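Example record

The entry below shows one chain as it appears in the dataset: sequence first, then structure tokens.
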Amino acid sequence: MSSQALSRELANIDPVNLNEARKAFLSVDKAFTIRRGKVAGQEQLDERLRRAIAAYKAGTAI
């Protein structure tokens, strides 16, 4: 898919769904920095999740 499709999907991601994706991601055991229940670099995590979701929906790789 084109970067235009990816941009369109990025713009269409619902913040509520992004929050649910974050919760699901954080519930899985992994080597990720979490301090006192907060993700270090949460903005970075949100951006990565948004890009991953949009890429999946647009049918392209990140």
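Notes for this example: The radius of gyration is 13 Å. The mean pLDDT is 75.
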